[in-house]
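Q: I'm building a small set of examples for a reading group on sequence design. Run inverse folding on the following structure and report the sequence directly after it, with nothing in between.
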């Protein structure tokens, strides 16, 4: 019988978040119930541990397994019914909106999550950046509570020096994303939040990258991009952990993944348009021009990437941001 548990994140059964008391009671009767649990969690008790199927929350065992006395005794594989995409997204967000803040840029991914969640939002950027201006417009249009965090080039350099020490795989893209997230997590901790909801995963599930418009094997591209999410999650959680926060991904909920995978690729990307099913869902929550707005990734729209490039040149790396990263 488990007398004490350590839980990071949250566990759900059939669309209902479990209380700590329920978890302790269930563990007293064994661990088989964990294999069908959804949520974003890493849990430890006595001589056992388990993590969610996607491995969203860092923990003491591999993703999606139940461990007891050093041995794997089960695999976490929740099996909810296939839902229409809109219902799956709504359920995923509502399971996560008990507390937290939305990392917001005004793009369709974060705007849809924010519109459903009803949580406070925070946008990060250099003064005068596209993301701050666009986020303000979108927040005003769909009545969101938005805080703008304006950072300076010196702030970016200082944050960059910190994130390159904690993220796996220090590439310019990863470092610029991590640096942007650094300021979101810093603000979240300062304002009493421990959960940050992001739109991460939408591009990989619905074909959001420009390369989806120019490929001879779109199905392979979807598979490869989805497989990259574990590494991206490790990056994001490492940065959030600096501020005692966890990143939460509504689009990586098993219901949303299942609904997305049931949609053929040619419906997701067609006629020069990307993420078509997601944008159609978003149109029920916001004006069409917002749902169909093509926005650059946050590291570009925030001005963080350009600032890192300038810092590299200032430090003698005129043609190699990677060289600057290596030096750091």
């Amino acid at each position: 019988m488990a007398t004490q548990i350590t839980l990071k994140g949250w566990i759900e059964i059939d669309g209902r978040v479990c209380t700590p008391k329920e978890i302790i009671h269930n563990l007293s009767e064994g661990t088989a119930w964990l294999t069908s649990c959804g949520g974003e969690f890493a849990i430890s008790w006595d001589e056992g541990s388990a993590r969610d199927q996607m491995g969203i929350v860092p923990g003491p065992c591999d993703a999606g397994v139940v461990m007891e006395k050093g041995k794997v005794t089960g695999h976490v594989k929740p099996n909810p019914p296939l839902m229409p995409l809109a219902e799956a997204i709504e359920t995923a967000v509502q399971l996560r909106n008990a507390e937290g803040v939305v990392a917001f840029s005004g793009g369709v991914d974060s705007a849809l999550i924010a519109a459903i969640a009803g949580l406070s939002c925070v946008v990060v950027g250099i003064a005068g950046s596209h993301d701050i201006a666009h986020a303000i417009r979108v927040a005003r249009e769909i009545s969101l509570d938005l805080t703008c965090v304006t950072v300076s080039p010196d702030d970016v350099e200082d944050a960059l020096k910190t994130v390159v020490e904690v993220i796996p795989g220090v590439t310019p893209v990863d470092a610029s994303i991590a640096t942007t997230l650094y300021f979101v997590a810093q603000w979240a901790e300062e304002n009493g939040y421990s959960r940050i909801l992001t739109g991460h995963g939408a591009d990989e599930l619905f074909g959001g990258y420009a390369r989806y418009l120019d490929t001879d094997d779109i199905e392979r591209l979807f598979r490869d991009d989805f497989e990259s999410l574990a590494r991206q999650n490790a990056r994001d959680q490492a940065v959030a952990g600096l501020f005692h926060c966890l990143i939460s991904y509504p689009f990586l909920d098993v219901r949303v993944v299942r609904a997305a995978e049931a949609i053929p690729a040619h419906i997701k990307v067609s006629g020069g348009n990307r993420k078509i099913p997601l944008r159609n869902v978003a149109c029920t929550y916001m004006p069409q021009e917002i749902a169909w707005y093509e926005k650059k990734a946050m590291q570009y729209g925030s001005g963080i990437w350009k600032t890192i490039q300038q810092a590299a040149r200032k430090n003698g790396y005129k043609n190699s941001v990677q060289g600057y990263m290596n030096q750091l």
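The first helix runs from residue 20 to 28.
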